[in-house]
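Priority: low. Protein: B box-type domain-containing protein. Input follows.
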Amino acid sequence: MASSQSVGGGQVPVNCKLCETDRPIQWKCMDCSILMCRHCKDKVHSQFKNAYDHKIISREEIGLHTEELDFTNIKCEEHTEQFSCLYCYTCDVLVCPTCVAKVHKRHDLIEISDEYKMKVKGLKKGQGKMQNSNSNLKAKKDELNKLMSAENSKYSKVRQDIQKHEETVKEQVETYFKELLNKLDQSHETVLISVKSDLNALSIFTNQTEGIINQVQDCIDISNASEFFKKVKTIEKSTDIQEPQTKPKYSSSPKFVPGSITQSNIGSLQDDGNLSAEIKISLVINNEYQSELEKIEFVSPCLDQSLWVSPGTLEMLQRVKPEGTNLKIISKFNIKVCGMAVTPSNELLLGVKSKTRLQQISSCGELTDSVYDVTPLLPNAIHVISENKLLVGAYNDELKRSAVIIMNMKGDKETMYEHDKHNQSLFNNTMYITTTSTGNIHVVDMISDDWSGKVVILRQGGHINQYTGHSTINKNKQFKPVDIVTTPSDNVVVMDFDTDILHILNDNGHFISYFNTKDIGIKLPRSLAFNRTGQLYIGSTRVAGSKTKEAKLYEINIAGF
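Result:
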């Protein structure tokens, strides 16, 4: 058997470059840069001109001889009569003595061989990243294929159910059944188009990266240093490829629910949930920062890597920036914060205790009144939908009123959610708000002074659902939601204060999974926020009875939800 080399995580056969038979590869000539079997080394290569001067190494040594490259004969591109002697790390270029004397004397200069090693290390890192990506994408493709198979099986079963039921109602309902089948076919086609689209994107990406991986390997294998540095910059850029993002979930064909043999209730197609793979949740702490606060009840990331943090009613608001393992204070205000959110223009909107009008802090630190006034209510939850829309949760204890208000950029109240279709109050005390891409609004409503609460889900037209905790998670401890955010995958995460558990809901407010923050060493989590690049921030509070200011902020990479 011929030996093989790795390409994109797989194995392809490598033949002897001289006889091209399937004899095992045993040797490599470093001067000729060819792989040989034992026969050709002894009988063919030995006849080459000056073969006795060539360096031949065994197959096992091939990966150990990058240092054999000759770095002394690389001609300077600027001064062709001279050879490059060093590498300018500052300018990212090879330099000769003249280059050093004229331009690079005070720059960071290193040995060419050292830069070569760093370049190879970087290339291998990029190559490994793409190989890992391909491996992950293969797993995703397998999952999608399984989903499509399950969808096809489900589709077949539902179709059979419909057809079987159709036989029992005969001619009088034939038209109605045809309508059901047409709807099912359209739904099924939509599902397949969605899944196949992602499969196609993954296949295209995989094909592209396999070619680049080969190019990277070819570059790494170059035995001529001059040729290597001519190609390496282009190759380095080509390894920085963004993986295609598959949809977090896929619509599924509706199920068929049989009815009585009358046209009004023959049966109908009902939503049977989303088509999705098994959820594998991962939270990994990327950074951990020490604050100077007793607790971090609110956190809002800015556009410039800084963050606004506040302990809430303890009359303190800080703008901080991560520095090492601490949060460096950039500015601070003595304000009792009830709610806050950063706008797309990097301004901070604030709900301040006892004020009906939101305040704002400009990007340069000026505190002023905003155009958003919710009189006679008091704002205590703020969520920015877009540049033109704002959600405000507000209440008035004396009036026994609580509402969620959609406001435009002028401060006009466009929509108010306060009562259900039976004219009963939707909320007791709106505390936190988030939205999903479908337009659903998720509101944390506190129903008692001990922070027990629920999540109310709204959509245009009114109330559609509510979540009051999980029967197992909250069997012995009441559900106490203290913050809520929407993930980049459009799921909703609710922080349950007494259990340290993140409840993960879909956009309709149905429970899909959970995560205990104690599993990664985070105790007493209190606040949640996502930054612009998809990292989750969790702010904590101090242990009950403690008098130290020990609240921490965690930056976390998430996956699976």
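The radius of gyration is 32 Å. Residues 1-12 have pLDDT under 50 and may be disordered.
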